[in-house]
Fold these 2 entries.
Entry 1:
Amino acid sequence: MLQYRLIRQEAKLGKNKGKDVYKALPVTRGKVSFDAFCREVSDGSTVDTADVKAVLSRLHTVITRNLERGFSVEVGELGTFRPSFGSVEVLSEKEFEAVKHIRKPRVLFHPRVAFASSLQGVHYERINLDDAKVGEYLPPKKKPEGSTEAPHTSEGTGGHASGGHATDGHVGV
């Protein structure tokens, strides 16, 4: 069961622009640690936890090596990892400089259809902010003007990278 909470915000686009609208934000129940994940994988197989950790560590190394070489890497029923990057536009081919105009590379993950649709049929449960769990994703609080303190964020986004916008509730990979 996936949990959510409702937030109110001002619509920035569309037919409701300028109006207060409500939307659901996902709430995670916490984070499964790498050790706990490895124990769970081990419990359902014939290998021990140390072997699972070793294979996953090696998986990271091999995927990284192949991405750096420019290959896409298929990882069984999970999906495919591929390297990508963005670029600044220039007016002529002669003025294009890779070091200057290519943006930071990133890794894209494309899940297989079976994996991507594994949450179909899931049920939803609405919770109140007072009921929110410790692992819930909360958008960063804005720091007071003139403050040097870093804004507060909760961890435990359930596999989502930290970040996102308070206005859309989306966190990216």
Entry 2:
Amino acid sequence: MCLVMSIWGGITQVWADGNPVDKVYHPLVIANERKFEWRFTSRQTDDKNVLAQRFAYGQAVSEYLIIEAYISGQRDESDDYGLQGIELEARYMLTDQGQYWADWGLLFEFEKQHDDNNFEFTTGVLFEKEFVRTSLTLNALLIYEWGENVPNEFETEFRLQYRYRFMPEVQPAIEIYTGEDFVGIGPAFMGVHRYSGIKQLKWELAAIAGFNGNSKDRTLRFAIEYEF
């Protein structure tokens, strides 16, 4: 129980922070795959330190479509911990890997806050192109927010990852993020350890510095994913 609370503690959902630094999605879907995923993000600015965690289970429902369900938590101003929100995500692979000059996919997300009638819907285009031993991945996202405590508005986000496939277990990269009043760039490292069949363990770690005037804005993100 202490371990669970220590993992859950210090959580503030990215929703309240407007931080676009998150996972860079790849268009590839593996038929019959299932996965468990954990994401952790820490964003430090001049006046606050926002911590966020998300837990997910996903399953491919066809060779082109995977559905994931997320739960997230937050720490409020009274240092109390609880459920923040729930999310349903669908990722659709438009082209088979290597079929054309680049690989393409679509992303759809629907999120609801737990205690308030605030909602968020995201749709986006996923792009990936391999150049010899490097890969360029782009996400172009359109977000619509509405509800009781948020203005009804559209936002856009852009995510880029340029990765060097040094070896499966260790792959350095550069990541770039843009969003509303935010531009960030920084190094990333990731890797995958493959077991028998389609079983594999993936990890990602990135440190992103925001360039938003003279204020400090640093984000550390980590993710681990087990596919089976």
